[in-house]
């Protein structure tokens, strides 16, 4: 079997999806808050009069979240902050030739929007992953949208995480309508310049549509996925737990086990069955496992060639020589090394970011980092010596491209020397 066929992700026809999303976005653009409230009632079954989360609701959330969970959020925030703070860019001035100086400066994106799913799994961890680097980067306005429950309330842990990480404004809006509100701006929701965050197929489709004209997005993305590399040294229970931790994300998630050990396969299958039976999200994980595969390869080089072709969102290397294999990773979103490093460590508290490219996009995209919330602006300065050094070359090249006004902008200065 060809590897391309073996590694194919589950796909859906997106034609109808695109039409539905485009219709919702059009209404949001035209009618603002009114349309947002209508779609909240239609899709989230929530009657929301005031779209913004109030200070009273923030205080209520503080009282509903246990001190133990708050401490866990603080620990995770500290690690995420530390890792992303270390990514600060300091541009150095470079004299590229006599009298010509160039440099770069990292400038924050002024307005960013964060989308946090709140459905079957309210991802308060994603609040920390997105708002923390946004705050470090210096974004002036950090807006967060998340769907309310049927009583119009937001998950309290999402609100507590938002306060810890420094979110400015929070809105009770879910799905496509949230993406539209942040991309276009409404009476309540400020327009942002870039939108971040995961979501279902409708949210992802909406992000891609608004990215054409109205707001940048973090990255294209699809369903979550993990690939586990394992050999004879792997613990079957660990491997099974890692596969199931990703499978429970959603019915369209995909998990892949690639191994050089034929003996490991039945042991992992047995562990998957045992652990699956105990999961509250068993039905979701079971459907995800239908999209999943165990692949037996003959040697480590084949294992790595296959991995780099698949370009997984999460890659866990559970082999005895994991650092050797890590050096051969070319395409992956985030890599988890050794038998004691589950993917869930990175999902919550190791400090790395869990907003990652899926669906093979890791061949060209990286996960969210500090740079995601900044732009690199270039500067250049020419002294009289610089004009003399490069001026004639600029004139010749501009003339060669038949752009005489370009040439003249240099010539008129050269005549003053």
Explain the overall architecture:
- The chain is of the alpha/beta class and 417 residues long.
- It contains 17 helices and 13 strands.
- It has helices spanning 3-6, 15-31, 33-44, 55-64, 67-85, 124-137, 156-165, 175-184, 201-210, 236-247, 264-276, 282-289, 300-310, 322-326, 343-348, 384-400, 404-414, and strands spanning 94-97, 100-108, 111-115, 141-146, 169-172, 194-196, 216-217, 225-230, 254-259, 293-296, 314-318, 334-337, 374-382.
- The strands form 3 sheets. Strands 5-4-3-6-7 form a 5-stranded parallel beta sheet, sandwiched between helices. It has a 5-stranded parallel beta sheet with strand order 10-9-8-11-12. Strands 1-2-13 form a 3-stranded antiparallel beta sheet.
- Strand 1 (94-97) and strand 2 (100-108) form a beta hairpin.
- Helix 5 runs parallel beside helix 7 (156-165).
- The longest helix has 19 residues, at 67-85.
- The chain is globular and about 85 Å long.
- The chain starts with a helix and ends with a helix.
- 40% of the residues are buried.
- The mean pLDDT is 96.
Question: What labels would you give this structure?
Answer:
about 425 residues, alpha/beta, five-stranded parallel sheet, 17 helices, 13 strands, about 45% helix, about 15% strand
Helix content: 40-55%
The structural class is: alpha/beta
Say how many strands there are. Answer: 13
Computed Rg:
25 Å
Reading the helices and strands in chain order gives HHHHHEEEHEHEHEHEEHEHHEHEHEHEHH
Task: State mean pLDDT (0 to 100 scale).
Answer: 96
Principal-axes geometry comes out as globular
The biggest beta sheet is recorded as:
5 strands, parallel
For the largest sheet, list the strands in their spatial order.
5-4-3-6-7
Strand content: 15-25%
Q: What is the tally of helical segments?
A: 17
Termini Cα gap = 70 Å
Spans of at least 5 consecutive residues whose pLDDT stays below 50 are none
